[in-house]
Model the fold of this input.
Amino acid sequence: MIGYVTLGTRDLPRATAFYDALMSEMGAQRGFDTERLKLWWTAPGAPGLAVCTPFDGKEATIGNGDMVALAAKNREQVDALYNKAIELGATDEGAPGERFPGFYAGYFRDLDGNKLNFFFMG
Done:
């Protein structure tokens, strides 16, 4: 199972502010904080989401076809989190809606172009 996901960034302070605001809406807080990496989780050892500057010192790039899916508590939270991401400067990749029976999701790209979604199954 996933322990954590790391997304590259070209601007760590900007990405940190974006994810501080967005992850707090999910009840997550920063659990790890270094000069080049920030990680959010809901509890120590729980799956987390991190942003970092690449270790090799090269520019961070996005992967076409890569995506991080973040589980929400219900459809209403999917809507709220998606809207918060857009409010924070994310770009739309598919507004919240039912993609197939029982699967509700909203897709966006963060400030660095990484693709994510919030989803609810049920």
Summary: The chain has a mean pLDDT of 95. The radius of gyration is 14 Å.
